[in-house]
Sequence to fold (220 residues):
Amino acid sequence: MLITNGRRARQVAGWAGIACAALLVAACNSQASPSAAVTSSAPATQASSPTSASSPAPASSPAPASSSPATPAPATTPSTAVRETAASTFLAQGQDINGSLLFMPACNGFGCALSGDSTSFLAKMTWSTWSATEAVGTGTYKVDGCNPDCAAGPIYPVPTVVTLSNPVKVCSASGARWVWTRASFRYPDGLPKALQGSNSPENPWVFSTVVAAAQQSCAG
Fold:
């Protein structure tokens, strides 16, 4: 009887040892592989990232304003009168607006008549300026000395720089044109003695005949 009980006690002790050994092995395995435990405990489907779930979609950026400035309005153009003057301003030969209208004339030969009585001419002219407001030329100013009278008087060629200005509008069936009405003279070599004092040519010279005729032409 005692022998039987002793055997049972040894068997129980052996089983207990085996059970303890098994428990130790299981504990060691669980400590050696923590990632396995974490993986097995994680839910099968992961929740969506909080950031992606809570962040609203970015608002559409406004279209950038055009960096190019708006096309500026065209600059104010000169008046019609000035444009016409610049395009078609003339010297009325002999102060006759219905005669020859000269544009930057060279006045070769005897010259271009400035007066209606053929007592003054411009000759051999070169023009440095011919604009809407004035014309400036260099050449020879031929002046009749009218001594003893203008028909028989000598002609004096005087080097000169002449400035034409004060254009007026002339109206005709062919359209509007502009004509110089004032001439100012500069004499680099001076005037000959016969043209000095009371005999000196008018300077500046206003073409009153042209002014009156121009006004009359546009009166209608």
Notes: The mean pLDDT is 75.
